[in-house]
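Exercise: predict the fold of this chain.
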Amino acid sequence: MAGRQNKGVPRVAGVRDWSPALEKLLDVCRHRSELHLRNPRVPLRFFFSSRPFAVSFFRFLRYFAAILLGCLGHDSRLSLFFPMVTSDLIARANPWLEDIVSYIPGKPIDDVARELGLPPEKIVKLASNENPIGPSPKAVAAMTEALTKAHFYPDGGGYHLRKAIAQKFGLDSSNVALGNGSNEIIEFMGHAFLTPGDNIVVADHAFVIYKLMAHLFGASAIEVPDPGLTADIDAMVQAITPRTKLIYIANPNNPTGTMVGTAELDRLVKEVPANVGIVLDEAYYEFLPNPPDTLRYVHETGNVILLRTFSKIQGLASLRIGYGLANPELIKLIAKTRQPFNANAIAQVGAIAGLQDEEHQQKTRALTLAGVAFLQAGFDKRGLEYVPSSANFVLVKVGNGKAIFEKLLHRGTIVRATGEYKLPEWIRVSVGTMDQNRRFFEDLDAVMAE
């Protein structure tokens, strides 16, 4: 059937389907066999040692080897058989992209199961600060119903979700921007304000996405030392230059779990020039028993934006839905930078239901606080240095962080190595269920004893 593709055979980028090579080989074999029948006195090997046969045969072998490597999951070795196609277009790419290192997420369970041959149900993932009990049942029900309307485009303006968020926090819908995860709001701010030569100010051990996103727009990041792995507000204000467009504070911070208080935030808002944007990333604020009142900055200023997400306490990480809260003029500006339909319909209805399910949030918060206490007590018992956490994870010093990460991985426990955060001696451990937390300590004791 014309155009039909064999789904059982992997495709190689830039290479035609393998079947023409096989057909060519068979044609050569058929032709040579016919010649042998017409010339029986000539040895058969003569016909199959000719150059056309050799070329066809080895071409087929090359495709067969590539297919075999693809089936075995060794895609990276395909270049041995099919050199990468280069283009003059690449040479014209923005030069600052050369130095960008892509963000490295926590390893998915399926990847670990496939790479190490472990049963997925035996793997514990404590790497990405996810909700261990999953999304609200009410959110699941709402999303299931919404699937029947998946053939319609979503509400591009996110009217109902923006209204629900605004009502939740005593704001107006004009104060709310939706993103494909709160990370997309970071990208919006880059589109709106950053050009080559500009800079942002961040703490030395801040969430790495801020720096990566600045580099994406040709801007640089001024990384300010953070004594005790806590943002130094005064030093960050002093680091501002005439080319500074944005200053980022994650509160609580990932991966350290530290935070700054109301007095420091008030000082930041007061001392940062009005023409510099202040981005307060509050992805973990729901886990705080008494969070700072940052909503008043939305009412009182024009240069502060709060970032929040449904990925953490709401348990909707795979849906990629987050939001920003700011002055209407700032929201209106960054809305010009977003793609149409950036927040999908399933995510919108799930987020509304999750936002309204206070019981599920309280259950998650209680589990998280108990889990943090359990992890920290376990580290105390083992004499391991850790950073007291205000989030749903704990940063702990284990010596060679990458080696411990790898050893835990091979036992089926996924944590997060923090070398990319300039913390090579540490790992970050997300709170799981109590059974998962106990499993982590069992595996940690085993690998530390090796």
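Check your answer against the key: The chain has three domains: 19-80, 104-130+359-448, 137-356.
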